[in-house]
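Hi Y.,

Following your request, here is the sequence exactly as I used it, all 469 residues.
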Amino acid sequence: MNKATTNSSEQPVYGSEEMVRPAPATTIPEKMTAPEIAYRMVKDETYAETQPRLNLATFVTTYMDDYATRLMNEAISMNYIDQTEYPRVAVMTARCINILANLWHSPEESESKTGALGIGSSEACMLGGVAAWLRWRKRRKEAGKPYDKPNLVMSTGMQVVWEKFCQLWQIELRQIPLSNEHRTLDIAEALKHCDENTICIVPIAGVTWTGLNDDIEALDKELDAFNKMHGWEIPIHVDAASGGFILPFIYPEKKWDFRLKWVASISTSGHKFGLVYPGLGWVIWRDKSYLPEEMSFSVNYLGAEVTQVGLNFSRPAAQILGQYYNFIRLGREGYTNIQRNSMEIARYCHERIGKMECFENYSKEVVNPLFVWSLSKKYTESAKWTLFDLQNELQQSGWMVPAYTMPKNIEDMVVMRIVVRQGMSRDMADMLLRDIENAVASLDKLSYPTPSRLAFEKQEKQLGKVFAH
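Below is the corresponding structure, written out as tokens. Let me know if you'd prefer a different format.
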């Protein structure tokens, strides 16, 4: 029978004409495609990619239980902004804000705490930054002082969203370099870069590059004395994309949040250690006075007056339901158990990797469920391979373990990173460690340098010439 006349419901997927033609890349097809065939074409294109739970590069949640997944799938068509049609979603959003604010020891006396949701922590960071900028600008205007040269201070361990924020809002970004001596924010150096135009200092709880935490309590203490000396009101915005859901459960006694005087706002990722699938961030302000009125927009939308704080408008409601489900399902006990298990597995991997002759851990302690390591000095001098080669070897086994250079000032250091999330067991960790050992053994047998090793040696020679001058 001719393919053209075969009933599409009877046509075998891999017997169809679509499977022997290239997938559409530049123009929309003229004809329809059977749903089974369209599904398989899209599905097959991602078939060879790393399975999400073997992706140890990402912080983003890759596992939720069946009920959470079902709940989010059932809400996939719900738009959060349609508050007339879905008023209970707005109620659950407010409940999540209240829960987070109280988890972070909000001093706000009102039962309704002040916060907002975002598509991710990037939007949440920007909202915290915009609020700090507007508050600073208002103070400058009221004092009759110039307000055209704002700046923001943080370490080079920042996530790229802060560079975007400063570029888009024309704010000078003053970065404090990380170094071997100061592997987190150098507080003394940060204060040297502050002046009357500083809108805020941004410490990080869970530095993406290293997994370490800036000492926020020490910063608050030094900043208090600094502000008193100069008569300024430089606040702190805590970028707690990872730490916001780790610190309260693993280190509940540690002061990093609203228990500190100058912490004005905190942002976090619900889709990282908040344990929700991608697409959710949160920002909480100390109280209502820290959220400028200019950031609240009211619009008559589908018959209701909707007041919104955010850079986006339409957004999925599914992640909000997922977050609220987690708060109910897990409670403090469940979150503590999950985060503690992630920490335990991260520490186990950290210890095992640190004992391998070829590696050297970046830090002695694991304070978040992630850590980085580099080649030991001995191996750096004699190995015919680099960590980029190890990344490629592990990828052949399905693992995504990233190798990358550190930020400015220590960019000559190449490291690898593991992020341990919900969904990684001790058995999986042992599988990973065996694959690392096997990959190293295979690379050690090379009789000639790899291209990345040759590139490294060339760079070393160039740096040597620079140092000679």
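Residues 318-355 form the longest helix (38 residues).

Thanks again,
Q.
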